[in-house]
Amino acid sequence: MTSRYVYGLVDGEQVEFEADAVRGGDYVYTISHRRLGAIVSDVETTDLEETDDDATRHDEVLREVMDRDGGRSVVPMQFGMAFESDRTLKNVLRGARPAFRRALNDVEGRIELGLKVVRDEDDDVDAEPIEESVAETLEPIAAQSVPNDMFSDRLVLNRSYLVDRDDREEFDEAVAELEDRHDDLTFQYSGPFAPYSFVDVEIGVQ
C-alpha cells in the first residue's frame, strides 16, 4: 500500500515538482487542509529507517520548496514522518492546525543560518570575549538564535540563527566582519537551511 512521506508544511499555493525523493520517489506534491499544505512524496511503508542518502533527499526537497516562487516559508518535519492515507494525514492537519499555524507564523519570511567558530588545535582561546563579540554583531540582525552541540573541544562557538530573508545580505556582511576581526580563528558559515532549530512541532507517524 502506498503511503505519504511528509517533508514539511507550507501555507497557501500548492507545491508540485519532480524530485529525487525519499525511498526512490520521483514526485513531490501537497496534501492540503484549508490553506495548510503538507509537502509529501509516495513511499511503500510507514516504517522508514534513516539513511544518509534519504536524509540528504529530505533536506534537498525542503531547499527546493524554499527556493520556489521567490522564496517560500516552510515548517520542516524531522525525518521519518509517514502516513498510511491522505485521510489520516488530513485529520492530523485538521487537529493540529493551531500549532502548525503558529509555527508557520514564527518562520514566515525567515531562513536558518549556521555559524561555527573553530580554534586551531594547539591554540589556547578564551571563548567568552569571542562569544560576546559574535553576539554583539549578529544578535541585533537575527530574529532568534539557539546554541548547538559543542561536539569538539576545538569549537569555540556553534549557533544557529533565524534570519529574515531581507536581512540575509546584512548578516553575511556581519559574519565577514567577524572573520576579519578574529583572523586567528576559522569561521564555518553555512545555510540557508529550513528552520529546524526554531520549530518544535511534530506529527506522529501513522
Automatic annotation (TrEMBL):
Organism: Natrarchaeobaculum aegyptiacum
Similarity section: Belongs to the gas vesicle GvpF/GvpL family.
Location of the protein in the cell: Gas vesicle
GO biological process: gas vesicle organization
Coiled coil segments of this chain: none
Protein name listed in UniProt: Protein gvpF
Predominant cellular place of this UniProt entry's protein: other
Cellular component terms (Gene Ontology): gas vesicle
Statement: the UniProt record of this protein carries the keyword Oxidoreductase: no
InterPro entries given in the database record: GvpL/GvpF
Keyword Protein transport applies: no
Superkingdom field: Archaea
Keywords of the record: Gas vesicle
